[in-house]
Structure formats: structure tokens, C-alpha cells
Amino acid sequence: MKKPWSGRFTKPTDETVEAFTASIHFDARLLEYDILGSIAHARMLGKTEIIPAADSEQIVSGLEQVLVGLKSGNARLDPSLEDVHMNVEALLAERIGEVAGKLHTARSRNDQVATDVRMYLKDEIDAVSGLIKALQRTIVGQAQENLDIVMPGYTHLQHAQPVLLSHHLMAYFWMLQRDAERLADCRKRVDVLPLGSGALAGTPFPIDREFVAKELGFSTISQNSMDAVADRDFIAEFLAACSIIMAHLSRFSEDIILWNSHEFKFIELDDSVTTGSSIMPQKKNPDVAELVRGKTGRVYGDLISLLTVIKGLPMTYNRDLQEDKEPLFDAVDTVKGSLEVFEVMLRSAKFDAKRMAEDLRGDFSTATDLADATVIYGKPFRVSHEMTGKQVRKLIESGKGLEDLTAEDVQEMAVDPAFLLKRIDPKGSAAAKNVPGGTARERVEEQIAAALEILGAQP
Ligand code: ARG
Which of 240, 323, 398, 410 is the most exposed place for a label (fewest CB within 10 A)? Predict the structure, then answer.
């Protein structure tokens, strides 16, 4: 097929150059957006009488046919036409002939590609947000179902203080909530129409950008044609948000991998979401969680790739910017896949309350409660800490745990023994953390109510 720039050239493109510069094998993903963008542009060209109304109508109906043809798999994409934009134009020309040549009036591939990517990204942000919400729902469901299970809470991967499993799970709800908010915020900056910027300077034709924005569902139009074709910060922002989502999923995965180990045995993953070993018959591996953790690196890489592409580019459009798409598409696929499969894995997980209770025995995780109890009876915390430390050391030396403390042992601490013994029981310890955001049952119920309100209010 003849290249649109053939007038200027005396030689055909070298094959290696053609293969190297083509992007159709990945930007074909933008086909539908490219066609919808072209339909809106053609309508605008007719409406403003930049081209005759009849030509505009012919182009619009031709583009609609091209879209139908592509959807039914009848259209052939040609790598020698470089990219999605030139392929669509060629397919249009096949259908309607020479009048197709009027479509590219008052636009450039530079403002066109920025428009396509923004349209695509708005839809994908909505899709990712929907998947985040589905996972948040499952987290809340598991928290409700396992509301009262007490487990060790960790710092430094050492037993620190008892917490409710529901509290631990809900921590991820809030992380994902901020992820959703970050995406919603990023979406505002994606939702700006670049079309009408031309190659970089604008266009001499009396175009109607507001009309195109309305047709394509953009909230607003870009204010500077050079900025509109040169920057990809909106993609960088999205990739940063994706990187944080993956960081959260990766940490959650790590918890699940640990909980699924022989040492913890806190969780039983469903057979349908685990895999076996080709050699060791006893194995049931948490591959889903491991892969989510592993794929986090790809998404970080996508962000760094794009930031590196942008860095040092002279104004305005440079072909380097074609390298924005593969990192973007890879991150979209990876984040969507990870959120989806993580939800499936979590939904069917069973938690072992007995194992967690056993694990709290002899772990001294309520030592702080012992110290706190003496503070309530008037001792300065630093004195209590010291006294409790001595008790802990004595118990360790005699091979005992805090649960072995007797009323007699605690006599010298000048605290009502009944009160104290209740506080050093893991359940009592968790129940006592009755502050907003604390792990007491009522407080977790409060969070769950707030979470459900958020989930209900969001579209
Ligand atoms: N395929 C190109 C890209 O993704 C489209 C824009 C081409 N513009 C140009 N001046 N060569 O960036």
C-alpha cells in the first residue's frame, strides 16, 4: 500500500525499518477508540463546513462499516501501514474511495494518538476501579464472617499484640480504598481532549473542539496544543497508581503465603486456587499469591519505562512516545488479572481460628496489656514496663507463658488480679483496644459499617 508521505520520498522504506517502526501489532488494541474518535472528528468537519456535509456523512458511515468489519474479524491489518491510525484510514479508503482522504483534515496523528490513549485509559480506569471494588467487597465479607477470630498481630514478623483477624483483613480494605481514590483523581486528568491540537501548533481550520469533546464524552479540552501532544504524564500517573495497587496486593500475597505455610497453618486455600507439585505428592502451593507478588515487579518496570521515555524528550512529539503503549497495556493487563484472581483466591479461603489461638499461647503478646493494667492502677508506664519485663523474664526462665500467671504472682503489681488476668487473655486484650481505629470488636464493626457505606455510595 502507498504511504501517505510518498510524495516527498523517492525510495521505499527499508524492510528492517518498517518492521522496527511499526506499532500495529500492539496499538491495534486502540482500533475502536481510533474509529470513534475519527467519527466524531468527521462529524465536526461536516458541522463546521470544513468539508461538505455529504462527504462527512459518507466518511461517518464508512467508518461505522469499518468498525463492524473489524468486530466480525473480516478486516486485515497491514504492518507496512505502521500504526492503527493509518490502517483505519486505509480501510476507510477501501470502502469509500477518495473521499476518505478528507478525514485527516485539521488533525495529525499526534493529537489523534493522544486522544485514542486517553479514551482507552478512561475505560480501563473504570474497569480497574470495578475490580478493586469487587475485591474490597470480598474483604469485607471475610471480615464479617470471621469477625471474632483472634490472631497474633506482628511487628518485625514477631508476635506483637493480639488483633482480630477481621481487623487485619480490613487494613487491606483501606489500602485499596486509597488506591481507588488515586485512580479516580488520575481519571480527572486523563479526561481532557487533545484532538484539535494538530501536529503541535493547532490548526488554521475553524474546528469546534467543544463539539468533539462532547461527542467523545470528554469533560474538557486541553489548553495548550504543544502540551497536549508532548506529554504522557497522565499515563505515568496511572502507572504510579497501578504500582501502588500491586504493592498492596503483593503484601497481602505475602501474608497469605506465610499463613499457608506449615509453620503458620492459619489459612486453608481452596484446591481450585492452588497447584500441586510434579514430584512432591503432598504439596499444595499458593501459586496465585506468589505470581501476584512476582508480577508486581513488571508493573514497577512499566512505570520506570515510561518515566524514562519522557525524560529528556525535546518538545513536542517525538517518536519515542510510541513507547508509551506497551508499558501501559502490560500494566493494565497485569493489574486487572491480579485483582481478579486475588479476589477468587480470597473468597474461598478458610481461616483456622483454633490454630491462631494455639499460636497465641506462650507468646507473651499480651505483655503490654500487663504493663498497661498497672498503669491504670497508677504506676508510671516506664515503671510498669520494667516490672512486667521482670515477670516475663521469670516466666521464660521457668518455661512458662503469661497465661500461667497466678493471682499470687501478680500480687506485688498492686492490681486487681481478676482485672489483670482478663486483660492478659488474648480476647480480653483485643477487646480492650476500644478506641476509634482499634481492634476491639465494636471498632471493627464500625469500620465495616463505614466500608459498606463507601461501597454502597460508589457507582
Ligand atoms: N504510532 C504513533 C505513536 O504511537 C502515532 C503518532 C505518529 N506520529 C508521527 N509523527 N510519526 O506515537
Answer: 398
The pLDDT tens digits for 371-410 are 888 888 888 889 889 988 988 999 999 999 998 888 888 7
Is residue 248 annotated as part of the catalytic site, yes or no? no
pLDDT confidence of residue 417: 83
| 174 pLDDT above the threshold of 80 | yes
Check 156, 262, 272, 398 and give the catalytic one. 156
| CA–CA gap between residue 104 and residue 286 (Å, rounded) | 52
Fold of domain 110-358? Fumarase C; Chain A, domain 2 (1.20.200)
Task: Output the CA 219–ligand 1 centroid distance in Å.
Answer: 25
Q: Which residue intervals of the chain bear CATH 1.10.275.10?
A: 6-105
Instruction: Compute the distance between CA of residue 173 and CA of residue 141 in angstroms, rounded to an integer.
Output: 11
CATH 1.20.200.10 placement within the chain:
110-358
Q: Given ligand 1 and candidates 38, 83, 195, 306, which is best to mutate, with the most ligand atoms within 8 Å of its CB?
A: 83
Which is catalytic among the residues 6, 219, 277, 348?
Answer: 277
Q: What is the pLDDT of residue 458?
A: 56
pLDDT of residue 1 exceeding 90: no
Which string of DSSP letters, residue by residue, matches 429-445? HHHH--STTSSSHHHHH
What confidence tens digit (pLDDT) does each residue in 256-268 have? 999 999 999 999 9
Strands 220-221 and 267-268: unpaired
Q: How far is the CA of 322 from the centre of ligand 1 (A)?
A: 6
State phi, psi for 96 to the nearest 5 degrees: -115, 0
The protein residue whose alpha carbon is closest to atom 11 in ligand 1 is: 319
Does 83 contact ligand 1 (Cβ within 6 A)?
yes
Task: Confirm or reject CATH 1.10.560.10 for domain 6-105, answering yes or no.
Answer: no
Question: What pLDDT is attached to residue 92?
Answer: 98
85 included as an active-site residue: no
